Amino acid sequence: MSRIGRLPIQVPAGVDVTIDGQTVTVKGPKGTLTHVVAAPIEIGKGEDGTLVVTRPNDERQSKALHGLSRTLVANMITGVTAGYRKSLEISGVGYRVTAKGSNMEFALGYSHPILVEAPEGISFVVDSPTKFHVDGTDKQKVGEVAAKIRKLRKPDPYKAKGVKYAGEVIRRKVGKSGK
């Protein structure tokens, strides 16, 4: 049995979980998330208000989906209660970010400013011209939006200029030596 998959999922007070066949809907104080659990995996309500994820057999595919399905549902519950946040930093001369309503505008050394619109369920928080956060209830969507923003100007390996995650360590390269 999967070490992660066999653990019951605790449902905190204020969170409503609805199971309709393979579809799991989680409603909480921060919003609603829906996920369709993969076919061989079954999810049900256990005793004392927990959720239990089971698999019908020990086939390789079922084993792989067991822990994944449990973690995805647990992430949904965490998302609607606490939410997720990805922090990013900008380093480089003249590189900055400004808030434009619910969107953000970046100056990243290109000939034009770059406007990033917030997708549904995602919000941006700008702390300073070089630090900002991506917030949301869906862990996958928060990470995806943060990765797209980082991709606008990846950190340069020589001077570490660009957009990077907070706490990310950039391996620096040595420039070529002059004669």
From TrEMBL:
Origin superkingdom: Bacteria
Organism of origin: Kitasatospora griseola
Gene name as annotated: rplF
Family to which the UniProt record says this protein belongs: Belongs to the universal ribosomal protein uL6 family.
Entry protein name: Large ribosomal subunit protein uL6
GO biological process: cytoplasmic translation
Role noted for this protein: This protein binds to the 23S rRNA, and is important in its secondary structure. It is located near the subunit interface in the base of the L7/L12 stalk, and near the tRNA binding site of the peptidyltransferase center.
Segments forming domain Large ribosomal subunit protein uL6 alpha-beta: 11-83, 92-165
Quaternary data: Part of the 50S ribosomal subunit.
GO cellular component: cytosolic large ribosomal subunit
Xref: InterPro entries: Ribosomal_uL6-like, Ribosomal_uL6-like_a/b-dom_sf, Ribosomal_uL6_a/b-dom, Ribosomal_uL6_bac-type, Ribosomal_uL6_CS
SUPFAM superfamilies membership: Ribosomal protein L6
GO molecular function, one term: rRNA binding
Sorted UniProt keywords: Ribonucleoprotein, Ribosomal protein, RNA-binding, rRNA-binding
